[in-house]
UniProtKB/TrEMBL annotation:
Protein's membrane topology: Multi-pass membrane protein
SUPFAM superfamilies xref list: P-loop containing nucleoside triphosphate hydrolases
Family of this protein: Belongs to the ABC transporter superfamily. ABCG family. PDR (TC 3.A.1.205) subfamily.
Gene3D superfamilies associated with the record: P-loop containing nucleotide triphosphate hydrolases (3.40.50.300)
Protein name per Swiss-Prot or TrEMBL: ABC transporter domain-containing protein
Key word Transmembrane present: yes
One Gene Ontology CC term in the entry: plasma membrane
Length: 1145
């Protein structure tokens, strides 16, 4: 193990002037002057030995993790040293850049300083802030690590996001603490503060829930005041720009007392100009507030690089330079490397350690070039004056005295528990308001399904006189319970979409887990009450349940309790799974167990001994018992039956339900208890679980790439050679350039009006520069090294000249801002229209608008570059590759398929061989019904997140006309087929033999065929639901409605002969009904076994025909109809992605 030590200086803001605007800061400069040298003492941070275990690649990584979890595999681990003997000091009030090639250890170093390294990593060394070790104060509240990704709640505005952060971090409290400390210090040093600054500090220290002054100040410093009331936005909803969103991420942290920032690759996904603007904003923040900032960038532009004061250069885990930025070239010149002309310093620094690029920078003519490894450069640095200066600064004793007590956080949270709860409650209420369409839609959906239910089980058709009608009442009650449970399924995607933001804020100690979960739970109570009330009012009396007001309100209370339990269950599952696909899968698994062992599908006396525990822990068991007792103990069910006992008691006894009324209150208590348990579990999962990790890079085990050693792996080199005019490559030609394989064309446009913001379009040799409003401020030649454009702007009176070595693009954007126009008192559009350049462009447009002689009009034979078949092949290759690299989807659903097959097989063990009674037959039908519903629903739910992500990519690729909609949709459908076949084999074979259906090869094949078609149409339905809705949340809500209706009119809860004539049409368009018709007919349609039931005596075949309306001859038509459903759902999806575009960007 190699020892790694790093030292850093961190001094947090402790002056009033640092929080003031620039002019006020100057007025308060006297306070800076009076601070003693001891007040500015540096802080030492020693760093760590870091060892990172290797990963395995995406698919193998997930498989290995799964096997390791079940103790079936003990993976081999290799040691990788990321940081090796690194030391350094970061000064407050100075911008420090962390530079290095990918894999050099930048992120690890930043995480180490922020104390956010993975606990599995091995480390050595000490990290101190102000001379105080990390275990002596709360690092998470003192510093902030800002990652490459920007996780925000898109429905909140920029101001709301920062206001919430300010409330959680106690921005007002922090300013009050500073005010207290500064008042004491001013009295000691006899300082008289500026009245303006004093007033500013006092106003900022006043608590407020909205429009906090600290928020306004942060918005101004970061340049976010122009978009303060704009939604942050998401992938599907237009919001602020990428650069603004990055500044929002930073603003969340600095709006509170944190003035130590570790920013990791913030330029990811941003152009150089936006990165420059962000770094410039951070420069203002650091210098005005004397903050401590360490920022890593991969390839900063020269003008961005120049903004930094200090530089840390990392390579292969070594610090090879640490000191002032302006002296870095001097150091490298001292060891023989020089910067060539027109080469960016940042690019030079990242290439000078590369074995491939280093030689070109060797400038020592007196010595032959020999590769200098990073470890040698690091040693040369430690021996240099810069390295000795760093070492000497680390040797200065630092005991933490001389710094204000408020500079380091001493408590976990900035404000009281009540204030944190209030902040989270206010935000949750605001988000519910922003999602009101979703909740209104869900409520309307409950009312519509309730209306359908009451018209299916209409009281005029049901008479509580015998056991047959009693079963229909019980079916309706059971459907109501399951529908309320299915409604809770929509909590899965909503909760998971919030988790990334929660984890970020939890890890930065904005609030504890309970402060997040409790308001969410509390605010779901009124909504559960609304849903229960709507369902009860719509269904109870039209169906004809017990006409008793007391029993009606008990029915409503039970509906409320089951909904609260379901909401808690699925939120708990979301917090455990932490992934859309995994959560949907486990959510379906939870429903499967609860559903099967709830006492209706499998009566208590039919539950196998090994599943008795499952029966008693199923929440639906208690819901079914409570709702059964509430209905069937009413006086109208106390009539004596011809079979003995009362009709109500007979119905309850058939399903193993209790006849004692106290079971109602037991059921209510258990359901509410489960709700509490699930919400406590949700809170604990939020508190102790972390986001799912990603696969790490593979470290080859058969070779090591060390300095001076050769690797055993082959090296692949790709050389691009320009073609000659005849299309053949010239092997030894040194001529630069290439021959275009097409005829160049000129495109002109004139006086075009289009009301969309367009920043700029860069064209080789030409430039079109526009400002807000679509107005052109320059259009013309760039010239060599952009000289024509530079000359044009520099000729305008008042425009500052471009500094030497500056990026012309950045300079051009800086001098053409609205602020510059206002300062110069001119309009660049007017200037351009009156210029010679404009007249030259106009003349060029007129000339090029006339086709040259001998040319043909520009015409494309097809809209797309490839024909439809080629597009389909390419899309297929892409989709198969994506699916192979998505084990969290495919491996998880196959795993769920196996688990579900084992659960269903063990619950219905040997049930297929029993056909002597009506109850035996209903149990076999229940097995087939359960298999169809739950495997299908799981497929539809788990595919939706995948398609939702793919749709975002599709919108972008379709806009560039890469392919047509139909080839893409066809590939999306085809890629599912192999996985559906594998699912069918795994599930079908397992359940067929465990349930012990009649062994017949033809019946076995038909069972597999119906399973495959069921999985296919459910999967295509899930895909279609995404295509027809703007969001995954709405697709989940809409899908749950269809699942409920398909379940209701499938022919199981209410047989076809009992369905009212006005709803028979829906029975025939329900794919689940055709699945049950086909699979039951194929398995039982030819059975001649005699059975005796309530009001029936005859063969199984006759029972299916008379009681259920199934005929053995319907197997073929059922297959044809299910195939038609598959084609219908797929076709609707194909049309929807062609016609609909929900991306509002």
């Amino acid at each position: 193990m190699r020892r790694v030590e790093v030292v850093q200086v961190v001094a947090l803001n402790n002056t009033r002037a640092k929080h003031a605007c620039t002019d006020a800061a100057r007025q308060h400069a006297q306070f800076h002057d009076c601070r003693s040298r001891r007040d500015r003492k540096r802080d030492m941070i020693s760093w760590i030995d870091v060892v990172l275990a290797r990963g395995e690649g995406i698919f193998l990584f997930h498989m290995q993790s799964l096997l390791t979890f079940f103790w079936l595999l003990r993976p081999k681990r290799n040691t990788l040293t990321i940081l090796d003997n690194v030391s350094g000091a970061i000064k407050p009030g100075r911008m420090t850049l962390l530079l290095g090639p990918p894999g050099s250890g930048k992120t690890t170093l930043l995480l180490a300083l922020a104390d956010k390294l993975d606990s599995s990593l091995k480390r050595n060394g000490d990290v101190t802030y102000n001379g105080i070790k990390l275990d002596k104060f709360v690092v998470q509240r003192t510093s902030a690590y800002i990652s490459q990704t920007d996780n925000h709640i898109g429905e909140l505005t920029v101001r709301e996001t920062l206001d919430f952060a300010a409330r959680c971090q106690g921005a007002s409290n922090s300013w009050a603490e500073y005010l207290k400390d500064l008042t004491k210090l001013e009295k000691e040093k006899n300082i008289h503060p500026s009245p303006e600054i004093d007033a500013f500090m006092k106003v900022a220290s006043v608590k407020g829930s909205k429009n906090n002054l600290a928020t306004d100040y942060t918005l101004k410093v970061l340049g976010l005041d122009v978009c303060a009331d704009t939604m942050v936005g998401s992938d599907m909803v237009r919001g602020v720009s990428g650069g603004q969103k990055k500044r929002v991420t930073t603003g969340e942290m600095i709006v509170g007392p944190r003035k130590t920032l570790f920013m990791d690759e913030i330029s990811t996904g941003l152009d150089s100009s936006t990165t420059y603007q962000i770094v410039k904003c951070m420069l203002n923040f650091v210098h005005q507030m004397e903050a401590t900032l360490l920022m890593s960038l991969l390839q900063p532009a020269p003008e961005t690089f120049e903004l930094f004061d200090d530089l840390i250069l990392l390579s292969e885990g070594h610090i090879i330079y640490h000191g002032p930025r302006k002296n870095v070239l001097e150091f490298f010149e001292s060891i023989g490397f020089s910067l060539p002309p027109r080469k960016g310093v940042a690019d030079f620094l990242q290439e000078v350690t590369s074995r491939k690029d280093q030689e070109q920078y060797w400038s020592n003519k007196h010595k032959p070039y020999v590769f200098v490894p990073s470890s040698t450069i690091a040693e040369r640095f430690r021996e240099s004056e810069y390295g000795k200066f760093v070492k000497s600064s680390l040797l200065v004793p630092n005991d933490g005295r001389g710094f204000l007590h408020s500079s380091l956080a001493r408590t976990n949270y900035a404000v009281s528990k009540l204030d944190l709860l209030s902040a989270c409650y206010s935000r949750e209420l605001l988000l519910i308001s922003r999602h009101r369409f979703l909740y209104i839609f869900k409520t309307c959906q409950v009312a519509i399904i309730g209306f359908i239910t009451c018209t299916v089980f209409l009281r005029t058709r049901l008479h509580p006189v015998d056991e047959q009608n009693g079963r229909l009442y019980l079916s309706c009650l059971f459907f109501g319970l399951t529908h309320m449970m299915f409604n809770g399924l929509a909590e899965l995607p909503i909760t998971i979409s919030r988790l990334p933001v929660f984890y970020k804020q939890r890890d930065n100690l904005f609030y504890p887990a309970w402060a997040f979960s409790f308001p969410s739970w509390l605010l779901r109570i009124p909504y559960s009450l609304i849903e229960a009330s709507v369902w009860s009012c719509v269904v109870y009396y039209p169906v004809g349940f017990a006409p008793n007001v007391r029993r009606f309100f008990r029915f409503m209370l039970l509906s409320f309790s089951i909904h609260q339990m379901a909401v808690g269950l699925f939120r708990f599952m979301a917090s455990i799974a932490r992934d859309f696909i995994v959560a949907n899968t486990f959510g379906a698994a939870a429903l499967l167990v609860v559903f099967l062992l709830g006492g209706f599908i499998v009566p208590k006396n039919e539950v196998k001994p090994w599943w008795t525990w499952g029966y008693w822990i199923s929440p639906l068991t208690y819901g079914q018992r409570a709702i059964g007792v509430n209905e069937f103990t009413d006086t109208r069910w106390r009539k004596m039956s011809v079979y003995g006992n009362t009709v109500g008691d007979n119905i309850l006894h058939v399903y193993g339900l209790s006849t004692q009324e106290y079971w109602y209150w037991i059921g209510i208590g258990v359901l509410l208890g489960y709700s509490i348990i699930f919400n406590i579990g949700f809170t604990l999962a939020l508190a102790f679980l972390n986001p799912l990790g990603k696969a790490q890079a593979v470290i080859p085990t058969d070779s090591e790439d060390k300095e001076g050693s050769k690797t055993t792996n082959p090296t692949v080199q790709i050389k691009i050679v320009p073609e000659t005019s005849n299309g053949m490559a010239e092997g030894n030609s040194h001529k630069r350039g290439m021959t275009l394989p097409f005829q160049p064309l000129a495109m002109t446009f004139h006086n075009v009006n289009y009301f969309v913001d367009m920043p700029k379009v860069d064209i080789p040799y030409l430039l079109l520069l526009m400002k807000r409003g679509g107005l052109v401020i320059y259009g013309g030649s760039l010239g060599v090294n952009s000289q024509d454009m530079i000359d044009y702007f520099q000729r305008i009176n008042g425009v500052k000249p471009m500094p030497d070595g500056y990026n012309p693009a950045t300079w051009m954007l800086e001098i053409s801002t609205p602020a510059c126009e206002e300062a110069l008192g001119l309009d660049f559009t007017t200037v351009y229209r009156n210029s010679d350049t404009f007249r030259e462009v106009e003349a060029l447009i007129q000339r090029l608008s006339v086709p040259a002689s001998g040319t043909e009009p520009l015409r494309f034979v097809t809209q797309f570059p490839q024909d439809k078949l080629t597009q389909f092949k390419i899309c297929c290759q892409k989709q198969f590759l994506v699916y192979w690299r998505s084990p969290q989807y495919n491996v998880v659903r196959l795993f769920f398929t196996i688990i579900s097959a084992l659960i269903i097989g063990s619950i219905f063990w040997n049930a297929g061989s029993k056909r002597n009674t009506e109850q035996d037959l209903l149990l076999v039908m229940g097995a087939l019904y359960s298999a169809c519903i739950f495997i299908g629903v799981n497929n539809a739910s788990s595919v939706q997140p995948v398609i939702s992500i793919e749709r975002t990519v599709y919108y972008r690729e379709r806009a560039s006309r890469m392919y047509a909609s139909l080839p893409y949709a066809a590939a999306q459908g085809l890629v599912e087929i192999p996985y559906l076949i594998l699912q069918t084999i795994l599930f079908g074979v397992t359940t067929f033999f465990m349930i012990h259906y009649e062994w017949n090869f033809g019946k076995f094949i038909l069972y597999l065929v119906f399973m495959f078609l069921t999985l296919a149409y459910f999967t295509f339905y899930g895909i279609m639901a995404i295509g027809l809705t703007p969001s995954q949340h709405l697709a989940a809500v809409l899908s749950s409605a269809f699942y409920s209706l398909w379940n209701l009119l499938s022919g199981f809860l209410i047989p076809k002969p009992k369905i009212p004539g006005w709803w028979l049409w829906f029975y025939y368009i329900s794919p689940v009904a055709w699945t049950l018709r086909g699979v039951i007919s194929s398995q039982l349609g030819d059975v001649e076994t005699m059975i005796i039931g309530v009001g029936f005596q005859g063969t199984v075949k006759e029972y299916l025909k008379e009681s259920l309306g199934y005929e053995s001859s319907m197997t073929g038509p059922s297959i044809a109809v299910l195939l038609a459903f598959c084609l219908l759902f797929f076709s609707v999806y194909a049309v929807s992605i062609k016609v609909l575009n929900f991306q509002k960007r």
